[in-house]
Amino acid sequence: MTHVSIVVTGDVQGVGFRWHVQRAALALGLSGEVRNRRDGAVEIEAEGARVRLEELVAAAREGPAAAVVNGVDVTWSEGPPRHRGFRVAPSA
């Protein structure tokens, strides 16, 4: 299974970013989670079909209207499934 880890920096907390990502991931049929990090970034872990994951990366680059995305770091990997469903996780 294809996995992607995404770290989004900028003005991305307190603007509905996690719910924006969750809605996109569920619409794309992906599993994983999204959480706020203590450093002000948002971290996304997702798994599923590569083409759908690429669409999620695009949604993260765009963000919701109130967000200002300054950077997106993307890391791809392969491995067994680790998630069921897509959730907003507690802040790290």
Describe the fold and architecture.
Strands 4-1-3-2-5 form a five-stranded mixed sheet, with helices on one face. It starts with a strand and ends with a strand. The protein has 92 residues and is of the alpha+beta class. Helix content is 27%, strand content 40%. A hairpin with a 5-residue loop joins β2 and β3. α1 packs antiparallel against α2. The longest helix has 13 residues. The chain is built from two helices and five strands. The protein has one domain: Alpha-Beta Plaits (2-Layer Sandwich), CATH 3.30.70. 30% of the residues are buried.
Q: Topology, pairings included?
A:
Layout: E1 2-11, H1 17-28, E2 31-36, E3 42-48, H2 50-62, E4 68-78, E5 86-88
Parallel strand pairs: 2-5
Antiparallel strand pairs: 1-3, 1-4, 2-3
Helix pairs in contact: 1-2
Keywords summarizing the entry:
Alpha-Beta Plaits; 2 helices; alpha+beta; 92 residues; five-stranded mixed beta sheet
